[in-house]
Amino acid sequence: MANAQPQARFSEGSDEASLSSTLDTLLSKGRWALVNEGEAVERNFKFKNFAKTWDFMTAVSLQCKTHNHHPEWSNVYNTTFIRWTTHSPKGLSVKDLKLAMICDALAKDFGEVEAPAAETPDEGASCGVRGPGPPARPGTAASRSRRTDVPPPLREKLCGRWVDSWDERPEHAPPLYTAV
C-alpha cells in the first residue's frame, strides 16, 4: 500500500484523543490531506477570481494574527495552497486543526469553487495579464538581454499596451506596491 495515509503525529502535550476526532472530521470531507509523515495537513482553495482569493487570504491572515499561528502558503491567481503544522513542539496541534476548520468556513463565505482533481493552476493562462507578451520593442532593455541562463524580464499589460520596464508604466497605472 504505497498510497497509505501516514499516521498522525501530534505535538507534545496535545490532547491526542480530541485532536484525532477533529482530524478525522477534517479528513473525512476529502479536501484536507495528512502529509509530512503525519505532522501537517494541507489543501488547495480555488475561487472565482484573484480578488476573491486575496479577500480569503486576508481573512485567513487576520485569523492567524488572532491565534498567533501561521501557515505555509502560496497563491497563484485564483488558487491558494495552505499547509498547517506546528514547528515547536513539532507535529499537529490544536491550533493547526482549528485554523484548518476556520479556513474551510472562510472559503465557503468567500465562494470557493470546486476544482477538478486533475486541474493544475497556470498563472499565465489564468491571469492573461502577465507573461511573455509580444516580442520586446527594439532598443528596450528587454530586447538587449543576451543572457541565455536567465528568463527574459517579466512584462505586463497595462492600459491596453505591453510595458517592458518601470520607466514605461503610465502615470495612471495602478501602483505595484505602496509604502507603509
From TrEMBL:
SUPFAM superfamilies per record: PCD-like
A molecular-function term among this protein's GO annotations: 4-alpha-hydroxytetrahydrobiopterin dehydratase activity
Lyase found in the keyword field: yes
CDD domains per UniProt: PCD_DCoH (cd00488)
Positions of the UniProt region annotated as Disordered: 116-155
EC number: 4.2.1.96
InterPro entries reported in the protein's UniProt record: PCD_sf, Pterin_deHydtase
Stored Gene3D superfamilies: Transcriptional coactivator/pterin dehydratase (3.30.1360.20)
Superkingdom assignment: Eukaryota
Enzyme class: lyase
Gene Ontology biological-process annotations: tetrahydrobiopterin biosynthetic process
Biased composition (Basic and acidic residues): 146-155
Known catalytic reactions: (4aS,6R)-4a-hydroxy-L-erythro-5,6,7,8-tetrahydrobiopterin = (6R)-L-erythro-6,7-dihydrobiopterin + H2O
Keywords linked to the UniProt accession: Lyase
Family membership: Belongs to the pterin-4-alpha-carbinolamine dehydratase family.
PANTHER family: PTERIN-4-ALPHA-CARBINOLAMINE DEHYDRATASE (PTHR12599)
Protein name stated in the entry: 4a-hydroxytetrahydrobiopterin dehydratase
Organism in which the protein naturally occurs: Colletotrichum fructicola (strain Nara gc5) (Anthracnose fungus)
